[in-house]
Design brief:
The chain is built from two helices and nine strands. The protein is mainly beta. It has a single domain, classed as Metal Binding Protein, Guanine Nucleotide Exchange Factor, Chain A.
Length: 133
């Protein structure tokens, strides 16, 4: 996968202020406010910043946490995981492997009835959905 590297000015020109705040500054959109929280459309979710495929609708599930949740990425190498000790808690940040944009966080062992027991909690503003067919 070819990496996408842009200057801060290039990202600011490409992204809306909210997209920039979340994708490039590791922000978080308000819970239950995102475009894809409740969508059940079948398709592929890609990175809004670079277009890389990240998740498939088959792995999306209702976690009732306020953000779209997936139990696994579409391929193991589409995202990277990073320790995040910000805000006084220990979490695992999820980033796009292609452009290093912040996507959200992954949580393990919460008891969801999914094949992996992982919850990739992803900001809607970081995604673009391409419906199947």
């Amino acid at each position: 996968m070819e990496k996408v590297i842009k200057s801060d000015a290039e990202w600011r020109a490409q992204l809306s202020p909210e997209e920039y705040r979340v994708l490039r500054q590791a922000g978080t959109e308000r819970p239950f406010s995102g475009e894809y929280v409740d969508t059940k459309t079948v398709g592929v979710y890609s990175c809004r910043a670079c277009g890389a495929e990240l998740f498939r609708s088959e792995a999306k599930f209702e976690s009732h946490c306020g953000w779209p949740s997936f139990y696994e990425p579409s391929e193991s190498d589409t995202v990277t995981l990073h320790e995040d000790d910000s805000l006084g808690m220990r979490r695992v940040e999820v980033r796009c492997a292609r452009c290093d944009s912040h996507l959200g966080h992954v949580f393990h062992g919460e008891g969801y009835a999914t094949p992996t027991d992982d919850r990739y909690c992803i900001n809607s503003v970081c995604l673009t959905l391409q419906p199947a067919g």
